[in-house]
Every structure is written in C-alpha cells, then in structure tokens.
Predict the 3D structure of the following.
Amino acid sequence: MTTGVDPLWEAPIRIVYPGSADPTAPAPATPTNVPHRGGPENPSAAAIRARFPDAVRRVDVVWGETTVVVPVNRVLEIVRWLHDEPLHLYTYLSDVTAVEFRDPEEPLTVVWHLRSLAYRRFLRLKAELPAGAPLEVDSVWSVFKGADWLERECYDMFGIRFRGHPDLRRILMWEQYLEGFPLRKDFPLRGRFSRAEQLRQALAANPEARYSMEELSIADAFEDLPPDMRTRLQGGEPTGE
Amino acid sequence: MSGTRTVDVALSTSGLDAQGRPQRVPLAVDRAGNPVAVSAPEAMEPDLQGEHMLINIGPQHPATHGVLRLVLELDGETVVRCIPHIGYLHCGFEKIGEYRQYNQIIPWTDREDYLNSIGNNVAFALSAERLFGVDITPRCTVLRVIAAELSRIISHLVWLGTTCIDIGAFTPFLWAFQERENVYRLLENWVGARLTTSATRVGGMAADIPTGWVDQLRGFLSEFPRTIDEIDRMLTRNAIWVGRTVGLGVMSAEEAENYGLSGPMLRASGLAYDVRKDFPYLDYETYEFDVPVGTRGDVYDRFLVRMEELRQSVRILNQAVDRLPDGPVNIDDPRVILPPKSKAMNEMESMIHHFKQVMEGPRPPIGEAYVAVESPKGEKGYYMVSDGTAKPVRWRIRPPSFVNLSAIPKLVEGHLLSDVIAINASIDIVMGEIDR
C-alpha cells in the first residue's frame, strides 16, 4: 500500500552529540575538590584583558568559576565582543541578575552569566554600580533576545534601569505596584505597607488597570475605560516607582 | 440572495465616520460583477476585515497550565500579537531565601517547579555544596542521579498527559498519569512524600533508600518502556496528532540559542546543548546516554525529543541501579552534617553540636557559586552568594520555563488561535517556577 516512506517518519530524532570547537580541550567532567580561591582561570578572562586593557577592574576565580569585574559603561561592548569573537563565542546568556549585600558599603552589583557552548566555557561578568549614581546599565538585549524578561525581572526586583531595553516594565509585580523594589535590602520581608493599607489598595484597585498601554492601543478598548484611567495612561504617569 | 456579498469600499474610496473610523457600506454584486448598493439589513454579514480583536486567555484557564495570562490581538483567527502576563503566583521565594538557613531553603525548592521537586532539591544541594566546598559520597551521587531522572520522568509524563488533553487525546493522559503514580509511589516509599519531597540536605540526603526499594525500581524500569511504546504507537503516527503539531511554533537553532531557550525547546530546534553532557555534574559523564535532537524545531519535534528523553532516562536509571555502591549517604563533615540522633540524645558534646547546627546553621565561606543542572524544562541554575553568615545574601533561581516562555510572542505570531494552545503546551511551563 505505501509507496515510499513519508519523510516525516524517517528518523525524525537525530541523536547528535557534537564535540567542542576546541579539539585540545579536555573532555568535560564533574568538578571535584574545587578550591575556594584560585585554580585555573577561564582563558577568556585573559583575552578580555588583552582586548580591553582599561576595562578589567578585577578577575576572581571563586569555586572554580571565573568572574570578570568591568565598569558599568563597558558591559555592552564587552558582551558583544564575547558573543561575536570566533575564539570565544559566548552565544548563550544564562542569566542576568543583581546582588545587593547586607553591608551598605558594598556596591549593588549586576551579574551576567554567559556560556560558550562551542568551547564549553562559563564566564561571569559583573558590574558594580557606583554609590549615589542612578541605577542604570546598558541592556544586552541587542545581543541576546533572551535578556528581555531577565532584565525586566531585574528592574522589577532591584529598580535597575536597563538602557536600550525595548519594553522595560515590571514583570512579576503589577505595573501599579507602589511599595518599591522587593529584593532590595531596605525592603522589609513583609512589604513596605501595612496589611491594612495593602488591603485598602487591593479593594480600591481597578481590575481594568491590569491592561497595559500597548494592549489598550489595540481596537477600541481605550474608549471603554473609566475616565481616570484614561487620563493616567495618556499622561504617561510613571508607574511602580 | 445568491451572488450577494459585502464589499468594503470605504478603505479605498469614501471618508471616515464621526468616530474617525473607516466607513463601511454594504454592497451587493450583480451578475456582471458590478457593485450595487443595498440597505444595511440586507447585507449577509458585516465585513470585519481590518478590525483587530483583543482576546484574553487566562489567568484562570485550563489550557494555560497555571495562572498564565495571554492577551492576543487577532486578525480573524490569526494571531497578530501576543502579550504574556505573568506574576500571578509570585511568592518572593528569592527574598524569603535570604532569611533562611541553607537547609531551610530546601522546602522552598519543592514548591517552585513542583513537577520536578526532587530534582530541584538535588540542584539546590549541589550548588550549596559548591558554596560550602564539600564533596558528596559515591552512594549519594548515584542516589541523586536516580532522584533526578525519576523526577524527569514525572515531569515529562505530566507534560505528555496535559498536552494530550489540550490537543484532544484523552487516553494517553490516563496511561501517563498511571505511570506517574507508580513513580510517586516509589518516591513515597523512599522519602515519605510524593510532591513536596525535601529529599536532600547539604552534604547528603534526608534518608537512604529502604530495603527492597531497588527491586521496586527495577520492576518499574522493566514495565515502564512498554507504556512509552504504547503512547508512541498511539500518538507518533496519529494523523490528528501530526496535523495538530507539525509546523507549529517553529524556531531555528540560532534563534532558539539567542532567545536563551534550553532543554527540549532548544534541542528540538537542532542544537545539542544538554547540561549533563556539556557541564557535567553528579558524574553524568560516566553514564551512557544520548541527547535527542530535533530537526525542524516545531511542536511535533518537541514531543519526539521528550519521548526519547523518557527512554534515555530509563537507560540512565538502569545503569545507576547497577552501579549503586554501598557506604554512607552523608559525608563525614561536622561543619554541615547533624550528628546522629542516638548520639545527640546521649552525649553532651553531640547535643551541643546538634543544637548549634540547628539554631545557628552551617556557615559557608565568603564566595559565590552558580551551579546549573539539566532539569526537565532546561537549564536550571541556582546562584548563591554568601557573606560568611548562615544565610545567603542572594539566592537566585535561573528558571528555565521563564526564559522559554519569554519566546512565546515570537512562537505564536501568525498561527491560529487554536494552535496557540498547542504551542503553549509544547513549552512545558510550570507557573510556580516562572513566578517564584
């Protein structure tokens, strides 16, 4: 009955396991007896130092992971170079997050975790935000589309603004959230407002306010909104600060 | 009124109405094809071309797999734009973790990706052990591999069952959930809990496996491949299943990598990145298993990749059971491990030690660690920063489904509304992990 095999049924799963782009690299193995400090440094750290001599503040190797600390205004340039450079190819962005220490002397730090899948390398980039300056850093969205939500979450939780991000809005908290940035150390675990105030705001909230400006621009939904919300949206009132 | 149709002439000829919208005049066509004006009630149906519709799916909707809300802009039935909203299940796990000792965080890891709870326990313990600088015993390593792979089987079975329901197949759902029940029974016999396992501790496990458990596991491993084959026969060449999945939500390997996708989502697109192979942990480099990789990157390929991963998990489990060594489960390190209860109740020194460990908690040195594992959803990482106290300064979860879901506007655009359900199911999201 069947005349020839439908290409759909022909081994649709390829079981492929490509090797590293660097033939001299050792086979990956589970790390054991990792030293607290020191140990082999990721070769890309030396390459960053050679390419951007004035941009490397510090290179730490902690628990076998290499951290390169760079100035805030050089991050995008370095990430783009790491992404494009054929000897490094950090084409995978694992994570964007921030760390605030309990010690107020320590600066708020933004952390990027990058992976080079071709060379099986892991690199942590850090930028310390100077005290007193506005919490701003360049977005890496133009290099990694995956940074979109990760940066939004970082903004939502820490209040760090990513310059050049296409749609920097709150993501986990709602857009009208007024209590501040939850993962900052000055934010109490129970929230900034009292339970009574939180309840009052929840009862007073307009459920329609969950729509964002860009959705309301579709079709006629904007005309159906209550007048106070229309003025709020038209005025471009900043939310969430 | 045969031969009648409505024609939208307003967009090209006439002006706008009082509200500034294009005016639409219902028209009929005579035999020669020339338009003839008819009065409005005679028009067969209004022509909606050009008007987009805003439709809201969720957050309370069975097909969104949790409290996900999708706002879709539709042109007819075609999705023009998709705006996802998340955060309805946000509990602040990362904030709470900063107020807990390391072992006290483990119950929270159960509750983020709750289909993979024991796998999260393992991942958390691994990253905390990196931060403490301790290495676990050989028996514990193999037990954790067993735990992680059982958890992958549970997660993939739930994914399979719920996706079948979404697409309209009911029988495989029953088979998948029956097998999931068998795995939960195994976990219950081991750690006493089914869903919220809290099975690991920093430096070991909460409990060793009971006598006879390995035989139960072997029994499961001999039966389970038959169920996979049955589901395979039921779905893989089923015309309805293929029609509902092939060609949907296609993503190329370069795009998938750039969007940060991981797990089956990335591998279905053709990129063989598996944390177990590329950045191994728990001695995964010594197990023989293959990484299935798709070719087209559509919903059907994601299904095939997950089916094959179930088989590979069975293969890993068989090897792990064969090599399970004897010996202690917990490391012999009083800095992180509690003394045995019998000693704590009879010796003053052990009791003081027990008291201090419980009340003050173990303290890692100053440092930071990011350890990623291959969870069923993708690369799941725990990033922890310590300032030398018993509680982390920062505990960050790198949630794979969060990053995978961020690509959904790209995946669904241009598809039909009914296909949005299939594409959303293929991402395999767990809102507990996305919102945390």
Observations:
- The domain at 101-426 of chain B is CATH 1.10.645.10 (Cytochrome-c3 Hydrogenase; chain B).
- Chain B has two domains: 1-51, 101-426.
